[in-house]
Amino acid sequence: MMVGVQDRAKCPKCGYKDASTEFQTRNGEEWLFCGRCGYEQHTTAVVDRVRSAKVTKKVKRLYNQKKYVEAIREGVYDQLEDEDMNMSTFQEAGVLTNNKGLVLGFNNDNKDEFQITVVRVR
Ligand SMILES: [Zn+2]
């Protein structure tokens, strides 16, 4: 079974902002359908498979070491460029807490910053 992530996107043909897209996480294929003009696009996503495999390996290694927070960071971080954001663990950022989590800083005008606390429930 394929896992698809559904989302809304801008139609490249008519500019309609609410076109449907579906991204297949397994093979990186993307599909777009515009409900306004009927435009349909099916793309084999341009995925850097070597880079992707490297990240997968890194995440897997952290996972095996039970470094779950770091694994989450590596996985998310890969989706954005260095100049867009920075991410540190609470420990790295010197956050005074016993919790585990991540500090996310975005390089936008507001310099938005978030803390994601990872709570172990079991
Ligand atoms: Zn359209």
Explain what the structure shows.
- This protein has helices at 49-64, 68-77, 90-93, and strands at residues 4-9, 19-24, 29-33, 40-44, 85-89, 100-106, 113-118.
- It is α+β, with helices and mostly antiparallel strands.
- The chain has two domains: 4-44; 49-118, no CATH class.
- Helix 1 packs antiparallel against helix 2.
- The protein is extended.
- Bound molecules: zinc ion.
- Residues 11, 13-14, 16, 34, 36-37, 39 line the site of zinc ion.
Quickly list its features.
single chain; 122 residues; alpha+beta; 2 domains; four-stranded antiparallel β-sheet; three-stranded antiparallel β-sheet; 3 helices; 7 strands; 25% helix; extended; binds zinc ion
